Amino acid sequence: MALRGVWQLNKLIVSYCDWGGSSRGVRAFMESHLPAFKEISPQLEVVTELNRGQHPYLKGLYRNKNERVVSVKNMTPEDILPCATRLRNSLGRKVVKLKTRHVTKHPSVQGTWTTELKM
Amino acid sequence: MANRRCIQTLISRCFSISHSPNPSPYPILKTLTIAPHFLLQTEYSTVQSLTPTDPGKICSAFPSFSRHHCSDNRTSMGSIDNDGDEEEEEEEDDDDDKSEDEERVHLSGKSDEQKAEEAAEIGYKVIGPLEESDRVFKPYEPVFAVVQVGSHQFKVSNGDSIFVEKLKYCDVNDKLILNLVLMLGSTAQTIIGRPVLPDAAVHAVVEEHALDAKVIIFKKKRRKNYRRTKGHRQELTKLRITDIQGIAKPEPIPSMKTEKRATKVEKTAVSA
């Protein structure tokens, strides 16, 4: 999650409810794993938001103004940590099937092969 | 095997009787008289030499007996050796269990050396230090390298990005060195490895660990009422190639720029 050395995830919002049962895992996550996660990524701004009556979610705001929302309803803290890590590790790009696994601007070094090429 | 078990129980009984507070030779004799008739059939003829004189001497009688080889190609050792075999079998089982446990422990918490070894074997990478304030991202150089990561090979140049199967032991913004370089090339020179070039190194930086788009795996057998749908997202790592070492790089062309600057300076001087 770093394009040319620059981290792409700017902000992570952890939205939870203090009454609902679907937020139980998130509340436990906030007590147990979230401080360690904050230490691992010091450049990341992590915000916890109380949203009563709604199911919990993790919202990631990226540098390219892209938002990725992951619902963590009824998940254990051990399951929420890889979700948060995945948001941190990814660029904000749209999830599209890859055309090629090798992206380059200069495909040829010694000259593109043609049928008329003589070695 | 059943014979062996019978003999083992007999011997254990003998020992228990011998170690009991009131040893009497008669029950030993009785058990021993039962034993020989099927002992002769097997290779365990050691018990024939058993003389129930003293409980202490029973133990010493065993190792002095010689082997009798039978048509079964089993080592006809004494009963202590049978016990030894038993113990060995038990030890082997314990060792297997222990090794399994050790393997489980290994899988859960590998040492750094093991991780580096695995990385070197599978992914052909060595983790360097994290990105600091280095100027790693250089402008394009007309040099390429053919690099192998896992089971895939890529023709790679400076500034390219590569999507590779998820690399386990590296985090985002880590510097890597890809060791398996199969070929190097520049505008003037090409170096081919057999199969690998030992001195070449390709430096890369981990950009991203992310999931690919979802692929739906749909299976159907017509007219058989069989239909299955499965979603799959492959975990990928995006690497950006920063440097290729091991080949003489052509010098960049500053002469054009210096000429342009010189002409500009002259023009400004002339205009002034």
UniProtKB/TrEMBL annotation, chain A:
First-listed, main subcellular location of the protein, grouped into a coarse class: mitochondrion
SUPFAM superfamilies (UniProt xref): Thioredoxin-like
Annotated Gene3D superfamilies: Glutaredoxin
Cell inner membrane in keyword set: no
Subcellular compartments: Mitochondrion
GO biological process, one term: mitochondrial translation
Keywords annotated in UniProt: Mitochondrion, Ribonucleoprotein, Ribosomal protein
GO cellular component: mitochondrial large ribosomal subunit
Lineage top rank: taxon: Eukaryota
A GO molecular-function annotation: structural constituent of ribosome
Bilayer-crossing regions: none
Chain ranges of the Ribosomal protein/NADH dehydrogenase domain: 18-91
Protein family according to the UniProt entry: Belongs to the mitochondrion-specific ribosomal protein mL43 family.
The name this protein goes by in its record: Large ribosomal subunit protein mL43
Organism: Coffea arabica
TrEMBL record, chain B:
Compositional bias annotation for Basic and acidic residues: 101-117, 257-272
Protein keywords: Ribonucleoprotein, Ribosomal protein, RNA-binding, rRNA-binding
MF GO annotations: rRNA binding; structural constituent of ribosome
One GO term of the biological process aspect: translation
UniProt biased composition (Acidic residues): 82-100
Keyword GTP-binding: no
Region: Disordered, residue numbers: 72-117, 250-272
Protein family according to the UniProt entry: Belongs to the bacterial ribosomal protein bL21 family.
One Pfam family named in its UniProt record: Ribosomal_L21p
Originating species: Coffea canephora (Robusta coffee)
InterPro entries in UniProt: bL21-like, bL21-like_sf, Ribosomal_bL21, Ribosomal_bL21_CS
Keyword Transport applies: no
GO cellular component, one term: ribonucleoprotein complex
Name the UniProt record assigns to this protein: Large ribosomal subunit protein bL21m
